[in-house]
Specification:
The structure holds 2 protein chains of 2 kinds. By secondary structure, chain A is mainly α. Helix content of chain A is 58%, strand content 1%. Chain A has 15 helices and 2 strands. In chain A, strand 1 and strand 2 form a beta hairpin. In chain A, helix 2 runs antiparallel to helix 13, helix 3 packs antiparallel against helix 4 and helix 8 crosses helix 9. The longest helix of chain A is centred in the middle third of the chain and has 37 residues. Chain A starts with 5 loop residues before the first helix and ends with a helix. By secondary structure, chain B is of the alpha/beta class. Classes of the chains: A mainly alpha, B alpha/beta. The structure holds FE2/S2 (inorganic) cluster. FE2/S2 (inorganic) cluster (FES) binds next to loops of chain B. Chain B: Keywords: 2Fe-2S, FAD, Flavoprotein, Iron, Iron-sulfur, Metal-binding, Oxidoreductase.
């Protein structure tokens, strides 16, 4: 089972959760008051860098019939597309730069270099995923309607292919993004729903047409004409394909590191309707995972290495997440909450491990749905017959005892049991 | 959709001539989802017709606290505006583009010849942006522009009997009208009543006197420091036949209301054409107000706690929304007029900004573009 009673799971009282919420609100207010010229410069430089890389990449791929230029072009264009999708597209569409009041860099007007139309993505991602983060049956990002990523999803023979689907999803991730909004698995009964689907399909079709036209028809055609060779055209198309795949694999990896490594929790629909702001914050903290990074990795991931902070403050500028993370970590210490992080390869490997494991039915899996690495519930702490978990303060140290200590104790007990 | 609409789709809403937009649309196939302009403006900020821009070429003091700002617009700006219209101008201050509207003081034919436009700005005591424009703007600065707009214009040819009634910087839209009349050369019976605290604070005082000497206007200055406020009685005295004249008036709210009352009393309101100053800020700290939904014209009274999203839904407007908690940006709309407050942080947003209707409430009367 996934978590239904979030404060109980986290060992916090209602008052604790509200206090935590107030501290997070204060972080937001501080950053908002401090936003200014420095941040705007960061964004403008990022845009300039991205446009420069994109232009360079395009120029290099025009000479893609030379092997070295083929690789250089595909690599440069791939990096340009990553920056465009992550640090620019994703973050601009979140409204992180709306405060600049710049009509060209605004959540309402940005269109990204991806086959999924911005308008669709803002709905599935900004609204559905960010409001209902990791809530089973509400957040489509949980498994993308394709993968089994938690024991709470009933096993079906289809999931034997979990690994294969995930590989395909990673390679063609942009098409997954494009399809997500269409909810193709859903039955549409009313005429309005059918008309809406038709409209959405047309939007996606147009966007895919433009993207494919650019990368696989026009650019190769120009290359073919410039080089007077059809081989050059084919090579350019190939380099563009590689650039897109590089971007797809990378963005998919970054995104999977955000919610699928061990320790990133899933939730049930219980109590969603009257969730307070404090509880929402808490859910974001427990449901997201970071990976450790230096400035380059942070930049290339669109600062989604700070996924926890991004989920707490989806509309605060990405370049501030690093400093926000220092304060969020301190809060996790104070309230004794886990702060899920690890190195990038380890976090990514953990998400693959879960996907591999969950291709099998539960009877072959060791852990229960209440106490598995990828999903846990408040029941994991009731194994010893304790009725209810309560927030407590250690008399000796004056430290709050909460979820983090409880998980550590649990682990300790298990180890003892195993050795006994 | 015809093939033509499909071809032009990427440049829908981009200013520019038909031919250049076709070039743009063709090139956009390879720059999609961007326009070629998005790359070009990195080379020269004026090379974009996607968003109008301009470069400040001169800032010339007019009085102690006002200056004329001459701007060279970039691609896509059309010079066929009418005297009396205003433009929106966006200036970068601490990383943010801050927008205000100002009357054009240049004269259209001269503008087109010199490829520049001019606005005249008076620094308002509380006006953060106007002071910056008057005192802090350097030639060479790139600004954003919104195309000329406004109904406050003179017909061509002008009516035979005219009254201009202005107060303070309300003379700015009129000066463009006068310059145009002077250039065209025709003469009509025009009176200008202008009220200002003293001679030194009268904008364009020399030029106005010259127009008077040339017989273009009959100038009646009212210096409130000496003569007291201009009220209905004194206007009656200054221009006894005001009721026979088509009147163009611009000034602060109280001044316009006073004139409106006079014309209403005589039942000749249709002869009065007015332009009010846009407020630099909502009445400070105001809570709630009348929210107008611009596209359908629906209105509703909202208090300072009700979100604009709720207000709109209550008024029966189809409001865009998503999370309803300020995180998804689905509900963002343009604030066309007035001032709103972010309920989370208390920050005020003014016209020309896009606001999240799910977490903002009216701070005075406001108009939304939905
Ligand atoms: S509805 Fe989501 S930000 Fe307003």
């Amino acid at each position: 089972m996934a978590i239904a009673d979030i404060p109980e799971y986290a060992h916090l009282t209602g008052a604790d959760v509200e206090a935590l919420g107030a501290e997070l609100d204060a972080i937001r207010a501080d950053i908002e008051a401090d936003r200014g010229e420095r941040d705007a410069r960061y964004l403008r430089n990022t845009i300039r860098l991205q446009r420069g890389l994109e232009f360079t990449g395009r120029m290099l791929t025009m000479g893609a019939s030379r092997r070295s230029l083929w690789w250089a072009g595909a690599g440069t264009l791939g990096v340009a597309k990553i920056i465009e999708n992550m640090e620019l597209g994703h973050n601009v569409m979140h409204g992180q730069w709306d405060w600049m009041n710049d009509p060209e860099v605004h959540s309402t007007s940005w269109e990204w270099d991806n086959t999924g139309p911005s308008a669709h993505w803002k709905h599935t991602h900004n609204y559905i995923h960010h409001k209902y983060t990791n809530v089973l049956g509400m957040d489509d990002d949980v498994g993308y309607g394709l993968l089994r990523v938690t024991r709470d999803q009933r096993w079906r023979p289809f999931y034997l292919g979990n690994i294969a689907y995930n590989t395909l999803l990673a390679v063609f991730f942009e098409y997954g993004v494009a399809a997500q909004h269409l909810e193709l698995g859903k039955k549409r009964k009313t005429p309005e729903a059918k008309a809406a689907l038709k409209r959405d399909l047309a939007d996606v079709g147009r966007k895919i047409g433009r993207q494919v036209g650019k990368d696989y028809v026009l650019a190769p055609a120009i290359s073919g004409v410039l080089n007077r060779s059809s081989r050059a055209a084919r090579k350019t198309a190939g380099a563009n394909l590689l650039a897109n795949v590089i971007r797809n694999l990378w963005t998919n990896a970054v995104i999977f590191c955000g919610h699928f490594p061990d320790g990133a929790e899933k939730f049930t629909k219980a109590d969603m309707d009257n969730e307070t702001q404090g509880q929402w914050y808490l859910r974001q903290m427990l449901g997201s995972a970071n990976f450790r990074c230096g400035p380059t990795l942070a930049f290339m991931s669109g600062n989604l290495s700070y996924q926890i902070e991004h989920h707490l403050f989806p509309d605060l500028p990405s370049n501030r997440l690093a400093e926000i993370s220092v304060r969020v970590r301190a809060l996790c210490e104070k309230y004794d909450l886990p702060y899920t992080t690890g190195s990038f390869p380890v976090q990514y490997a953990k998400s693959w491990r879960t996907i591999a494991k969950l291709s099998l039915p539960n009877k072959y899996l060791k852990d229960t749905a209440d106490d598995a690495p990828e999903t846990a519930s408040e029941r994991r702490f009731r194994a010893d017959g304790e009725p209810r978990l309560v927030s407590s303060v250690d008399q000796r140290t004056g430290r709050r005892r909460g979820l983090k200590s409880a998980i550590a104790d649990n682990r300790e007990r298990r180890r003892e049991r195993a050795s006994a | 959709m015809s093939w033509r609409e499909r071809f032009e789709a990427p440049v829908a809403g981009v200013a520019g001539s038909k031919a250049t937009n076709w070039v743009r649309a063709a090139a956009a196939r390879i720059t999609t989802p961007l326009l070629p302009d998005d790359y070009l403006h990195l080379l020269n900020p004026l090379w974009s017709a996607r968003e109008l821009r301009g470069k400040v070429v001169a800032v010339t003091p007019v009085t102690a606290d006002s200056a004329t700002i001459v701007i060279e617009p970039g691609w896509g700006f059309s010079f066929d505006y009418h005297p009396g219209q205003y433009i929106g101008i966006g200036v970068l201050v601490e990383g943010r583009w801050t927008w205000r509207s100002y009357s054009l003081t240049s004269e259209p034919a001269g503008s087109a010849a010199e490829r520049t436009v001019a606005i005249t700005v008076k620094a308002m005591p509380e006006g953060f942006l106007s002071s910056h424009l008057v005192n802090g703007l350097k030639p060479g600065t790139v600004v954003r522009l919104a195309a000329p707009a406004g109904e406050f214009v003179l017909p061509d040819p002008p009516p035979a009997k005219l009254l201009f009634a202005t107060a303070g910087s309300g003379v700015t839209p009129i000066i463009s009208m006068l310059r145009t009349m002077a250039r065209r050369g025709g003469r009509v019976d025009a009176v200008l009543v202008h009220s200002a605290p003293d001679e030194d604070s009268v904008l364009f005082v020399d030029e106005l006197r010259r127009f008077a000497a040339d017989g273009l206007i009959d100038l009646r200055l009212r210096l409130t420091g000496v003569d007291g406020r201009l009220d209905a009685a004194s206007l009656d005295e200054l221009v006894p036949d005001w009721g026979d004249r088509q009147t163009w008036a611009c000034g602060p709210g109280g001044f316009i209301d006073m004139l409106g009352g006079m014309f209403d009393d005589r039942g000749i309101r249709s002869r009065l054409h007015v332009e009010r100053f846009a407020l630099e800020r909502g009445a400070a700290g105001a809570q709630g107000g009348t929210v107008t939904f611009g596209r359908g014209g629906k209105k509703i009274e909202a208090d300072g706690a009700q979100t604009l999203l709720e207000a709109g839904e209550e008024a029966g407007v189809l409001m865009p929304f998503g999370c309803r908690m300020g995180i998804c940006q689905s509900c963002v709309v343009m604030l066309d007029k007035g001032c709103v407050r972010d309920l989370r942080t208390g920050v005020e947003h003014v016209e020309g900004e896009r606001v999240q209707t799910c977490v903002t409430a009216a701070a005075g009367d406001c108009t939304l573009d939905v």
